[in-house]
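New here. Invent one.

***
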Amino acid sequence: MWDQDVSPVVLKKLLVVFPLNQRHDLSEKDGDRYFILNVVITEIFLHLSEWSYPPPDLLEIFLEFIENALSGKTSSAAESGKAFREKHLLSLLPFIPKLVSRVSRNWSLRILQAFTKAFKDSNPESSVKLACLSIIEEMLVPRHGIPSLDASDPEILGHQTTWIRELPLLLIMLGDKHPSYSKVVLHLQLRLGQCALLNSAVAQEYDNMQYSLLEFYCTCLEERSMFYGPFIKLARDSQELSVCCLYYFSHLDSSLLKSIAFCCLCDDLEPFMLFRIIEVLHSAYKAGHIQIADHISFFITLLSRFRVFPEEIYTVMEGDKKMSNRGIFKSVTSVVSSCLLQMGEDSLVFQILEEVILDQMSLRPPIDNICAMLRMLLLLDSRPTRLSDQSVINLSSFLSGYLIDVASGIPEDDGKSTSSIHVNTCHYYFLPCFLLFTRSEKFLKLTLDVMGSLITENGSSPFSPNCILNATDHTNRIRAIVEILILMHKDVKIQRILSSCKSEIDHILQNMLLLQASKGMNMSIEERHNIQCAFDRLKCITSTLPSATPII
């Protein structure tokens, strides 16, 4: 075609004069005009080259111009000159993938080097950066019959590595101010994950990308000091792309899982996306991309640190969704529980879960978080309990305070309809403990022993430490303990076990009388009367306890 349609004379003249007027004495304005003209001529040349191979000498001249244009050697070093060059480079960039696949290795590497420089030097929000991303996708994920770059060539691999490593940095630089550009980057990241060959060098670079993404999600410099990245404020469709990318890491590192868990704890994250993250990560676990201990740690982080508001469990009714996120947290607990049941052998999962949950409970999180973790334990527990003896001892000391704090919030029975709602709410938080008691009589006995000792102790409960109790606090604690025992008595299964705990209940009654008779406490007549009323109520139910029967 070149021989038929382009005369030898034209070719000879083009060889001599192209690029047009490359003199150093041109004004900036004239230089820009000639640059535009040269780009147009190059674009025409490249279109013609798609039909047949041009003469080698002529091809090299145009390749050199393309190399210089991409490298910034054909325009002013000033920022205005850079912006001008970038604007007119856009018409040449689409030819890069085919060009590097057709020219010699030497020229291919030179063009790739220049292209990589143009990509890195362009502003994050520029149209050139956006176009480069599209070209990179075409070269890393070939389409339209273009052969893929030879990743076994170390120099070509070096350029591919540079492109991939720039993606997470670009996401962070873009922040949440350029959402359409961030979406393009995330789309490219997802395509790379979907198409990278298993164990290939590109796949390895994709895996390494996760360590640079921590800042994109969330970083934690100190305990509970969170710094959320752009992910939180991106639109749902971009968040969806980002979450889908997680599945394609062949091994999700614990540091990234921790970063994502902190994002899930952010109040600004939509509940839909929270559940979507759990779904994708659980799919990644089932595909072997997450270790079991890391996956459990992710779930425990969610349940132990999720901020339920308001903390007072009796102030907002369950239906008032605008003032409380307690319903969402209960849904999270349910979804996590469902995932746990799919994680493998119950006894193995329980063994890992037991240690982690006990560690988290020692940090004394709020009541809702404790309840959620107890429900996770129960889900995989058996009868008799799988808890070790040491765990039973530790939990009994801790849960006695938990039960007292739950019961302390129950409002006095005023005869209104809300009273039954309060009782039902209280039962929701008591139920995990009651079920544990049915699986271990020792657990119940130890818990009652701790409650008995707390009556006369001057310190606060294990669940709410670091304060000294006055007479009113002691009275409220006694009222709470009696409420707990009355609710236990109303539960048929617990009532049967209580029959074997009469000595522990007697110890509670004795300590109530000791406290009432104590002259060391500055106790009013009303407070002594309240203790006597609580004593009478407890004495009444103990008298109706059936004879102890062995637990089957």
